[in-house]
Structures are given as structure tokens and as C-alpha cells.
What we know:
The protein has 16 helices and 13 strands. By secondary structure, the chain is α/β, with parallel strands linked by helices. It has 2 domains: 53-203 and 393-411, CDP-glycerol glycerophosphotransferase, N-terminal domain (Rossmann fold), CATH 3.40.50.11820; 209-388, 3-Layer(aba) Sandwich (Rossmann fold). It has a 7-stranded parallel β-sheet. It starts with a helix and ends in a 10-residue tail after the last helix.
Amino acid sequence: MNELVNLYIDPGTGSMLFTVLISIVGFLVYFFRVLWVKVKFVITRGKMDKMDKSKIPLLIFAEAKRYWEVFEPIVAELDKRGVDMLYWTTSPDDPALDQKKYEHLKVEFVGEGNKAYAKLNMVNAAVVVASTPGLDVYQWKRSKFVDHYVHVQHAANDIAGYRMFGVDYFDSILLSGQYQIDEVRELEKKRNLPAKELELVGIPYMDSMRQKIKDAPKAENSNRTVLLAPSWGPNSIFNKFGTRILDELIKTGYDIIVRPHPQSFIADTDMMNGIISKYPENEHLKWDRNSDNFESLNKADIMISDFSGIIFDFTLAFDKPILYADTEFNPDCYDYWWLDRKPWTFEILDSLGLKLSEENIGDIKSLIDRCLTETRFKEGRDKARSETWVHMDEGAARTADFILAKYKEVSGKTHGEKVTG
């Protein structure tokens, strides 16, 4: 009983001791919480320092080897300025991998398909430059370690010509015509997107092509040469007209070069294999699957295409007429669908050449001859150039200016400091 009496604590003292105990526990919780915050800060700072040191200043991503011609003029300009660049390609035979003339360019093959996108999705870079659309839409996700994404055009036409949401999640887009800016702003407004940074820089690869045309010997054809350059998918020439277009072209007696869009051999494999088998190469018919399209464009007197961007490479840079196919383009899966206006591409086509349809395909020789002789199409080409090719011959320099300014902005470095990969 005495032991029980000795353990007795009066209510007042017990309350005081309980308060002291709570205070001690509270102090310890606070102490360890503060200690953990400090430790976490030190650890995180170390990681961030390490991340900063391993950060790629400038990364260029090429979805396929054919985009080397889009990026090379930009690479050449940056290399001339002493800017180090890392170039990732998904093509093991990309010509960029074999280049030797650019001292400040490092090229890496990063795998194909999802393997490449897995690296992109976690890349640590200040500025990423790409002509591939669909950032943060399909398998290509924004990396939380990238400060700024820049989209570069690979065709001189509507920016709304991509499949839906093609450029929605880039931070900036480099463009070549005011109508493209208007399209982006309309899409942003309708989708309630924040305004992206838009800059009119021109078209570096077309400037380069234009200079190459000046330097190249003029093609001397003993026979008129027609370049058939269909796009891919359900709206393309072969899906619309089948092989009848080749039958009618063969009847003209003109030389024919067929250069399908590379994607058609992936999306329409069986159809393309069947056509190539049915129409093998001969003296007057050639198939062109080279990554560089210059030779075919330079040799051809006229091009027949549908809605492919190669139309504008041909007619604006080479100053030659076109026949464009009436394929009843379906805009449902493209950003065109959102516009309240007729896309510039389809608005300008009438000025560049004649429409090829089911009704007049039997008169294709007459249509070709008219396009090659009527002067109004020359005037139409001049009009199109003024609307979709601003700052002619300045594209690479203006693009490099923008990229370097953006790098300076996100990294806090000046242009005079070394930009290393």
C-alpha cells in the first residue's frame, strides 16, 4: 500500500508534467523536422548542381534521316558561331552521322521508335529544337528537365496542316509567313491555350536549296520530265486515283519520276509494293526513294502531287509549275478542322497550277503542257513566295539568333560564354 501511495501524483503536478512532456515531444518533432529540411536541401542542392553540370545546352532531335536537310543549314550557322550542339537521330543511316565538316556538332543514334522517345522523355537539356510535331500528345512527352522546346518547320505551308494538337505544347515556333501566326493564334484561342512565342525567321532549308539550285548545272532534258510525288494516307493520289494516274502518264510519252512520301511505305505498305511490282523501272520510268530529293526536283519540268509540302519546295525554290490532285482532302484529324478559314495551302494552289480530277485525268498531257506555257502560274509563284517565305536567304541566321537568345534566357549565360554539349 505504501508503494502505491508513493506513486501517487496530485492532479496539479500531473498536469504540469504532462505539459512539459508535450513540450519536449513538440520540440523534438520540430527539431527533427528542421533537421530533415536542412538535410533534404543539401541533398537536393547537390543533385541540382549535378543536374546543371550534366545539362545539354542545345539538343536537336531528328525524327528521321530526311530531316538532315532541314537542320543542316541551322547546324552550319551555329557551327560557324562556335556553338556546340548535340544531334539525336532515330535513323542508323542518317547522313548526319557521317558528317565531318562541323567541328561543334556531335551526332548520336538514339534508337528507333519508342526507344528514342524514352530517352527524349527524360532528357536534361536547356533548349530542344525539333521539326517533329505531337509533343506531349502521343509517345513523346515533355521532359521535366527541359527548359524550352522550339519547333522548326519542315515545309513552307500551313502550320495547321499537322494532325491535331501538333504544335500545341511547344514553347515557341519558328515560322515563315504571317498567315501561320494567325493560324496558331486562332487554335490557341479556341483551345484556351497559353500564347506561344512565335517568330518569323524564314525557311533555312529552302534558302539552302535555292543556293544549291544556283550552283547546280541546269538539267538538260531531251524529253519533258514529270515528277509524281504523292503523299500518304487515305487522301493521297494513289488512294484516290489508284494506278490509273501512272497509266495516263505513261501514255504522254514523257519521262516519269515517281517519288512517294517515305511514310507511304509504312502506312500503305501493301499498296506501294503492289504498284512498284506492277510498274518496274524502265528507260522512261524511275522510282526515287533517296533521302535527298534535290536531283529529282532539279530534273523535273513539272510536279504532280496532292497536299504534300514538297509542292512548295518545288514550285517556290525551283520556280516550276505543278498539277495538284483533287483528292477531296478530309481535315477531320488535322488542325485544319478547327479553322474558320480555308487553309492557305488550298487557297494558293489555283495560282500555282491546274487541278487534276477524275474528269480530266484522261487529258493529263494537255494539262501538263498548259501549266508549262501559261505565264499566270509564274505570277502565282511570286505571290506565294511573298506570303510564305519571308526573310529569304536569312533563315539560318535568324533561326540561330533566336535559339541562342532563348538559350541565354533560360540559362542566364551570355553569348560570349562557351555553349558546350
